[in-house]
Amino acid sequence: MEAILEGKLEEADLTPAERALMTYVELITNNAPRSTHADVQKLRGAGWSEDQIAEAVYITAMFAFFNRVADAFGVPAQDYLSKGKMTP
After folding, report:
1. 6 exposed, middle or buried (CB, 10 Å; 0-12, 13-18, 19+)?
2. Most Cβ neighbours (<10 Å): which of 24, 37, 66, 82?
């Protein structure tokens, strides 16, 4: 979990399918227009269904939307993931 929170996916204990999904979500987060059919095909090849892929895109988009709205209105960061606040 720590590796994921720190953005160190190469150190995270993920399955190949989870790693493929995280790589795709990173692409969608940083540069969605660069997503290609081949990127989605990698997810299918890793075992993800069409519904799961779509859900990952929707969730990623919703987080981006809410973050931008919060930033625009100056909502302070809640810092839920800082040490001492995380529940096991």
Report:
1. exposed
2. 24
